[in-house]
Amino acid sequence: MTTNKTVQNSTKKNSNAHITFIGGGNMGRALISGLLANGFEPNQISVVEANASTALKLYEDFGVQGIGALEQIAFDFSKNNVVVMAIKPQDFNVVAKGLASKLKHASAPGPLILSIAAGIRLKDMSRWLDHARCVRAMPNTPALIGKGITGLFADAAVNESDRALAETICNAVGQAVWVSEEKLMDAVTAVSGSGPAYVFAFLEAMQSAGEKLGLDAQTARKLAYATLEGATQLAHNSDEHAGVLRERVTSKGGTTAAALDVLKQQGWHEILEKAIDAASQRGETMGDELGKS
After folding, report:
1. For residue range 130-171, what is the model confidence (pLDDT) as tens digits?
2. Which of 29, 129, 220, 265 qualifies as a FRET site for 214, CA 20 to 30 Å off?
3. Hey, how many other C-beta atoms are within 10 angstroms of the C-beta on 284?
């Protein structure tokens, strides 16, 4: 896991970087907060945010410069510029084409573009922006509390220095992993991007089951949430496969075995695999749909 010290060391190397966020919503805000907590300065960050109240809140909380419209962006090419596309996938095309005119006037090689918009492929991103220095990222919502994990992909147009900078930005809200092929970003989206929802559904079921067995809602919630948190941390701290850990708490003929037998009979493992596969296929379809324009 990346430590704050590691991120801060990387940040020192990027003291000449300037990051412009396009979009100051939840994920953009989380990244800004994480970067500032790990050594970046407010004057290294700008935010294009049309909503005046959101822009004011970002300035009040973080001291970062607000830019009211895309047309008002003015890159300082004495800096290593990064643009973080923190916008909805359905808005990406229009925003990217609007940004393209700014990039045409950029000193070579122009800003590094880091997209956190789900489903937007590199070839489409590059086509709309008319720009090749792009990185695709897929974070997840635990980034909001600094516990996220982000999948990253870039092609040969992005050098090692740019990869390190993109990773530093994403590590500010948790961890980051690189995948070797872009098609694997659909798997990243299915496993970790959508993954928090599966966990929340599991917690819902655990709490509901506890209540049906007679526990009050508060106690059932506390038991379910603490159990998941503790078990996850135990697994994270172990070098052993999760299956081995499962076997260790499953005594033959015991309560755990009885519960796991039901799950096995219902095919829960296969159900979850099918669910994640469906999410991956939907991600692929979204990429096709979003890239048509």
Report:
1. 999 999 999 999 999 999 999 999 999 999 999 999 999 999
2. 265
3. 17
